[in-house]
Amino acid sequence: MAQLSVPVVADTPDTLPGRRRGRSAAETARKRLTSPWASLAAVVLAVLWTLPTFGLFVTSFRPEADIKNSGWWTVFTDPTFTLDNYRTVLGSTGQDNLAPYFINSIAITLPAVIAPILIAALAAYAFAWMRFPGKNTLFVAVFALQVVPLQVTLLPLLELWVDLGINRTFWPIWLAHTMFALPLAVFLLHNFMREIPGELIEAARVDGAGHVTVFFRLMLPMLKPALAAFGIYQFLWVWNDLLVGLTFGGQPNVNPLTVALFNLTGTRGTAWHLLSAGAFVSIIVPVVVFVALQRYFVRGLLAGSVKG
Amino acid sequence: MTSIRRHRRSAVIAGGLGVALALAACSSGGDSGGEESSSGSTTTDCADFESYGDLTGKTVTVYSGIVAPEDQPYVESYQPFEDCTGATVEYTSDKNFEQQILVQAQAGSAPDIAIVPQPGLLQQLVATGKAVAAPDEVAANVDEFWGEDWKAYGTVDGTFYAAPSGASVKSLVWYNPQIFEANGWEVPTTLDELADLTATIAESGQKPWCAGIASGEATGWPITDWMEDMVLRVSDGGPDVYDQWVNHEIAFNSEVPTAALDAVGDYLKNPDYVNAGFGDVNSIATTTFQDAGLGIPQGTCFLHRMASFYASNFPTDGSVTVAEDGNAYAFYLPGETADDKPVLGAGEFNLAFSDRPEVQAFQTYLSTDLWANTKAKASSEITSGGWISANKGLDEANLVNPIDKLSVEILQDPNTVFRFDGSDQMPAAVGSNAFWKQATNWITGQSTADTLDKIEAAWPAS
């Protein structure tokens, strides 16, 4: 409970010492890491970390019989490569073709990432800088909702979707992901917003800005790293989600890529040689997003969550 | 620096794959167009469908755990029904069917028809109160084409719910006919001959059997099949004792099951007999069931007990010929004598969750010999077989795969006594939990008595 109350009670967050501490810690870390031994350790770690992915990558280009009979490292002595696996997962007809599911995944992910960020940013602003009765209680309630696991609510939610008549469309998936992202998003963004000096907002107020202007002209630009960090989180979560897609989707025109990947091995798991190629198709987008936004990722992590 | 370089490289890889993806996505459009036009040209005699009436504009949804590529023959086999009645059949499937169907049924979003692969699951679904009994036409068809034993598996508490759909034969031993011929080995016709053959191969310095039971959370199931087969075959066993055992009328650790598991152990726990191509007895637990029999065509393994569907597991690059004179085929796991023909198998059932006229009409179509043959033809064309039904009206001429022909011969043999996979009928706490786990412990060293005692203890009290 002590942890819970910190963000609520702290009215004037003393951000400067925190930042200075963070920077000096980074400097010491950099100094320590520039030693050749540390570099070597980092390289070894990087290689070990990448090795399984590399093996998967090599496997995805091997013929079916080779995949089933020998390990991927045998390519160094006996190199045989084929594009057949990729041809099957991208060019065949029926369920094995991942292309339509790729589109489904994008159609699911975009709204399920943008909606919670938008709602959470507005809610976080209200919790951080507006005064209304029951604010603290409400904030604790929202924060406490994080403990509700998604799995517990599957059946009640499904009943609700059936009653509403929106089952087996994109709506249940969007709504479920948005709902379950909100507690953490509100909490993270709230902490981030509290760190912005109150003087800044007061100055804007004096200049005649209302809440709307403050939010759009002042908060949103400063929140960019936090929004990006949470965006990546939420993106990876939604993109990799199987359970929600499987339970609330269950239709070829709604199923995300993960469901297709899950089914790719065939009814009795006999076509598992396709998995490596399928995995790489599904990795592409997260890798691109992560590489594009990674600098925000680290910055946002330090700024938002460390405090709580 | 290293981390930056690594990220650049992955960006290049990602970019390259992105291009490949875009190219392949373009080519797939053309393929699917061709597929549609070919299925539309199917000509059908609509006379058989007149009794179903005009169902134009009606939709029937089908949900199953059968995914690509085996799903296409199903879709194809529904085509004549759609063409002649005007109804639309929507087929969806995913591998998580067994969990999903229960959730969907409870939430009230069940499909019109579910293809249920286990009698135990069928009972659970009926217990949700959402399933509806089969119409009289379906019951009449099942009486005509299947017979008592199959009908009983689709019946819950005296009410007949679901007609059988596909079937598979599990009492098969895979072998390599070319190697058998070269060594002068004969296909055994009794259990004793099988033991002799095993000893002969072992004497030549090679391990005869290969086995693998790893299968994710279901690890252990191939041993349960072995044991079921042996309960049907050991001296005091047989189909009646099997039924008692499955229904827990005799204890799991009583005499016959103990003898049966010991009989399995004579093969699978004998270090001279296993595990060909993989290692010692313990390697059975870590070898996936998919991999276990791949040594048959390569000649690294000589005997592999696995169901008929294992045929689809061999690589399709032409190196494996599944045929009576090829390098992979199967023989019937013999009974105690040549006249005893107990057959362990499995199958699916069509359970309906709606009694709308179009659903009942479709259910009836699925229980006819017409559908069985249409489906067999479609499977032969699209997936080169791999599908059979126990429907007596199924014409062997519609099967192309030698294993399918063998399976249908076994199923239609008048001496055959069919029994459904026991672990699929037992309560979930045993059939898909304790039995699998204890079987895995058994293969890695636990004694037969310990194993059976623990499974017996896991049987739900009520």
Please identify the structural class of chain A as seen in this structure. Answer: mainly alpha
SSE order of chain B, one letter for each helix or strand: HEHEHEHHHEEEEHHHHHHHHEEEHHHEHH
| CATH fold type of the largest domain in chain B | D-Maltodextrin-Binding Protein, domain 2
Please state the second-level CATH architecture of the largest domain in chain B: 3-Layer(aba) Sandwich
Shape of chain B, please? Answer: globular
Strand content of the residues of chain A, in percent?
under 5%
Structure annotation, total helices of chain A = 14
Query: Count of DSSP helices of chain B?
Result: 19
Order of helices and strands of chain A: HHHHHHHHHHHHHH
Alpha-beta content class of chain B? alpha/beta
Please describe the biggest sheet of chain B, giving its number of strands, its sense, and whether it closes into a barrel. 6 strands, mixed
What's the CATH topology label of the largest domain in chain A?
MetI-like fold
Assign the CATH architecture of the largest domain in chain A: Orthogonal Bundle
Average pLDDT for all residues of chain B: 88
Outline of chain A:
flat
Radius of gyration of chain A: 24 Å
Pair of chains with the largest interface and how many residues each contributes: A-B, 57 and 53 residues
Assigned CATH class of the largest domain in chain A: Mainly Alpha
